[in-house]
Amino acid sequence: MSTKQVIKTSNAPDPVGPYNQAIKAGDFIYCSGQIAIDPDLNQITCLGDIEKETIQVLKNLAAVLKAGGAKIEDVIKTTIYLTDLGNFQIVNRIYSDFFNVKNPPARACVEVSSLPKGVLVEIDCVAFLE
Mind listing the pLDDT tens digit for each residue in 46-57? Predict the structure, then answer.
């Protein structure tokens, strides 16, 4: 029977609700959705700028993965939440640069009516540790 472990790092923002940054269960890390909160300032400094928000979100995810002992190459599934699918091309370009690995993860992208704190993008992921 595997145990579950809470993953917590000061290099990513604290959760904005009753959840953890990530949970490690067996060989998997389940990362909660990240939004564009700058962990050093504990605030969103780029609200409304889809490029800057996406970059901050991916930096936050990378920090959580690292805290759990994972690398970008270990990510097997992501979900992108956008408040406007019109931003898909911009997000996809930044995402492609971030996941510029031999085998990029599986992915879903959905449009939602709103996201926490009025952000434009949120991304979560699952990583597998071999």
Answer: 999 999 999 999
Q: C-alpha angle 26/37/8, rounded to 5°? A: 30
Residue 8: CATH number of its domain: 3.30.1330.40
**Among the options 31, 46, 109, 125, which is catalytic?**
109
Determine the Cα–Cα distance for residues 112 and 22; give it in Å rounded to an integer.
22
Domain count, the chain: 1
d(CA 19, CA 77): 20
| Radius of gyration (C-alpha) of the chain in whole angstroms | 14
Give pLDDT tens digits for 11-32. Answer: 999 998 999 999 999 999 999 9
Record the pTM.
0.95
- CB of 73 within 8 A of CB of 29? no
Nearest Cα neighbor of 128 from 31, 57, 13, 55 is 31
Domain range for 28 is: 4-128
Catalytic-residue membership of 46:
no
Residues 6+ apart with CB under 8 A from 93: none
